[in-house]
Amino acid sequence: MASAEDSPLIWARPEPGTRRPKFTRDQIASTALRIADAEGFAAVSMRRIAAELGAGTMTLYYYVRTKDELVALMDDAIMAEVLIPAEEFPANWYDALTEIALRTWDALVRHPWALHSLQGAQAGPNAMRHFEQSLAALAGTGLDAPGKFALISMVDDFVHGNALRSAEMRSTRESAQDGPAGEDDEAFEAAVRFARAQMATGELPHTQALFGDEDPRTAFPRLVGDLPERDRFRQGLSILLDGAATRMNLTPPAH
């Protein structure tokens, strides 16, 4: 009969059982996150983590057997940031889902590389606790199981989609501010000329009415407005939850 140590899932295996283990999975995961946050996910390797911890690379394989297991640890470390302490969990479904969504969005903004690099990670205990909290938020709503799952999925889709778009826009702004002049500037100007030529055909009247002849560098900030991106996210989330409350006959809080 196979023992727990033989499980292909890292979560099903106990941590190394020496009396005083030199490292923990949490240490390994937090080190990997620091590297990814500073230098990108591509910089993360067992060799690099070992160097940061002052250990031999082979020593770490005693704790984490594969790159997939390392990815799972990193994903679960991020999910730990999302969890709401029990004593702070809101009583109303609307407030609870809002807090869960904001914590998730904040975590993804802190670790934007995770949106792409941690896809397909093995769900760990913190990911399961996160889902449990989402279900707990809807426990008193009277929604059936498909309704709960649908609402949780809608919020999750909005959080991840918005975080991805925010990361892309942030990257574009940083490139425009820090990137070298030359080919990038030429490509941008060529794109502007192309867009104006397309609008001049008369086939894009709504786009033409929106932008006119304004330079995109001033048009986009004007259209987006001065609201910080986290506040824009919260505004969109409120619209989504207000619509869900109406469609699903749920009672929002009296704010």
Large-scale geometry: flat
Helix run count: 12
- Main sheet specs: none
- Roughly what is the average pLDDT, rounded to an integer? 89
Query: What percent of residues are in strands?
Result: under 5%
Tell me the CATH superfamily of the largest domain. Answer: Tetracycline Repressor, domain 2
End-to-end separation? 57 Å
CATH class of the largest domain, please?
Answer: Mainly Alpha
Task: Describe the fold and architecture.
The protein is mainly alpha-helical. It has 2 domains: about 5-80, Orthogonal Bundle (Arc Repressor Mutant, subunit A); about 85-245, Tetracycline Repressor, domain 2 (Orthogonal Bundle), CATH 1.10.357.10. It has 12 helices and no strands. The protein has helices spanning about 25-40, 45-55, 55-60, 65-80, 95-110, 115, 125-135, 145-180, 185-200, 205-210, 215-225, 230-245. The protein is flat.
Topology:
Blueprint: H1 25-39, H2 46-53, H3 57-60, H4 67-82, H5 93-110, H6 114-117, H7 125-137, H8 145-178, H9 183-200, H10 205-211, H11 216-224, H12 229-247
Main attributes?
Tetracycline Repressor, domain 2; 255 residues; 65% helix; mainly alpha; Arc Repressor Mutant, subunit A
Quick synopsis:
This protein has 255 residues and is mainly α. It has helices at 25-39, 46-53, 57-60, 67-82, 93-110, 114-117, 125-137, 145-178, 183-200, 205-211, 216-224, 229-247.
